[in-house]
Structure prediction request, 841 residues.
Amino acid sequence: MKKNIWINIGFQVGALVLALLITTLILIAAGAPPLKAYGSILSGAFGSKNNLVAVLITWSPLLLTTAGVLITFSAGLWNIGVEGQMVLGAIFATWMLRLLQDTSMPPVLIIILGILFGMIGGALWAALAGALKTFGGVNEIFGGLGLNFVATALTIYLVFGPWKRPGVGSMSGTQPFDEKLWLPTWSNTGLSFWALGISIAVVVIVYLLLRGTYFGLRLKAVGRNMKAAFLLGVPTWQYSMFSFLLCGAFAGLAGAIQVTAVYHRLLPNISNGYGFLGLLVAMLINYQAIWVLPIAFFFAALNVGSVQLQIVYKMDSSFAGVLQDLLVLLVLLGQGVRERLMKKA
Amino acid sequence: MNVELRHIQKHFGKVHANNDIVLNIPAGTIQGILGENGAGKSTLMKVLSGFIQADSGEILLDGKPVIIHSPADAIKHGIGMLHQDPLDFPPMRLLDNFLLGRSGGLFPDRKAVARDIHDLAVQFDFSLDPEAYVDSLTVGERQQLEILRLLWLGARVLILDEPTTGISASQKDKLFETLHKLAKQGITIIFVSHKLEDVEVLCHKVAVLMGGKLVGEAAAPFNAKKLVEMMFGKEISLGARHPLKPGAKVLELRGLSVEDVRLRLTDINLDVHAGEVIGLAGMEGSGQGPFVRACSGMLRPVNGRVLISGHDLTGKSYHTFKQSGVSFLPASRMEEGLVPGLTLTEHFVLAEETQGLFVDRDKGNKLAEQRIASFNIRGTPASTVESLSGGNQQRALLALLRTPLSLILLEHPTRGLDIESTIYICSKLKERCQQGTSILFVSSDLEEILQYSDRVLVFFSGKVTPPLDAASLTTEKLGELIGGIGWTKLNSGKSA
Prediction:
């Protein structure tokens, strides 16, 4: 058993090295000195207080989406729609804030209601994908993908239509909310310890849920063999649906946090790909909830750090995505190769 | 072709699946390979047919050492394997199935191949139409097709893995006749089975495997008792039937009608008493499947009522039936019964009543250890179910049943199991009966039905007999009913 763990770690490290090697080649081809480029990613992520704060701001929604998709993955579902669920969370939170901003209600209550409503929005959007899957026989990947497009279109419609700024709508989003409706942040940076604390708590809850509860065990059974789970007495479609609802609620929470803590308005690209990134993190950690915190942090740092590449070398900041995707791909490849070798041995 | 296996060794992790196996099979011999599940039969045949490579050892064909890398390689050397589940392409024509296995030009000569098929079929008195689709054939006919295809590809050695499972008695006779014919032509037949009676009538000689080792060989005529001893290292006898003391009514069917896509069963009336065993006989797909599913709430009846312990549960869900003490064990263990990737402990925890929010791991493991011991499962609490052999999976499935239960419905509880596992499972079920649980089981094994049932229902193309007293039946009579003969005499009484 012990030997297996070391072989496992060997393959993971190998995948990391290979991913770095390939990205180095890409950097060279793009005309950037690789070592300096990596250095600038590092300093872009950790070089200053502001940069580190930016990493923590990114970390929070990523934790939530990853925790969410861990639940749906457990139920054997590919919830690609997590991106749209996050968008709907942002839309619903904005909606609630807009409705209540001119009332005399205490701002704290408005923020809480906004966040709760965001979670409901995400859950509803997920329920739609779940219902399509459970009752309509539409694969959740197609349903989710379609709903993602609808969510994006809905945001743009709102930003340029009913919710547009006084005068003319713009890509910079809706009119920012009054400062009293902002989630308290650390010295006006957009970093909310409330948001971060809740996100970490959600990860811990999901970890406990999947690891030691009847709920987690049943979810796993449903994910691996629905028919057998049914015969063993698990209400199967209800569990599938519930996993969608939970994941959607967490994604919606991520979207609501983007609105209440970071941007204070609805933006066309408010989800920023964090839903998809959450799927990647979940795959990279092989669906083991215990690794969510560090790996999501690493991905957040890559995302923030590579912005520096754009400034220094005029490279597109999507470079972080290249490195992240390569890493996931190679780790998955490594697992496949290892399994093949183990079978032979 | 002469086949010689020399010192074949094969390990799978810690399991020594083949341990120094030496076997000579002269051309024209029908060689039986006997052994219980997990004895190493399949491994040895996979080595010979190129699916896996031995760790060490040699294969000699007509005295020449060969190395077989793949099944395609095996057929080039003249070794063809007939699998337990036919490896053909159901939605395609017979002719296309033939063409697929052969390398050739861009445009195959369909006419010539059709003629070849025809000639071969005539030679063995098979009636196969080259232009028919494979999915229109019975399992027996698909077997015939596969034999012809292998011969056509030039097989001089035929390996048959459990070929008598799932085919009718007449098809079995035909198969044996064909094999005898082939052997006379000098083709070597290797017949893998755990069915003693088949080996007895067919084979010229037999090799017995146990725990990966070749433990004995014998030539015809065989001493069955001795073969059993070799297979299991001990003598085994079937248990005797216990006279029934009928108790309260557990299951009542009133004018029940059920249907699935293919057929409809109408107006079934049946009372099952506590502790009673009802055998459901019939050709596969004659309606037993929908019937047991309707009795367990998995299929909503079209008409009529289902009562469990006096309560009308018609139209209620399986989970409601389950709460009333009904359990259903499906035929396909891994597809419908067990959850691959979960351990035995996790299965037992899932099957039991939920207690609180968190799973008590220690308690779960203790429960698993206890069940593993009492059901004699070869595995540990942390074993995943897919790592168990078929017999042990079936034991695990039985071990998952809660106590007490009022009614257990089983589909093919002993299919694919060796004699020892079969007897064990039947004895476990009998224990349940003595505790007052009623059992309905589907089986295609007539002797098993007569051996264990109190009463029998026979299914034939949408019709069901009234319950027949098992003691008054014989295998011949039962076989006739299954084939649709003698039904007119039965129409005197419909319910019991």
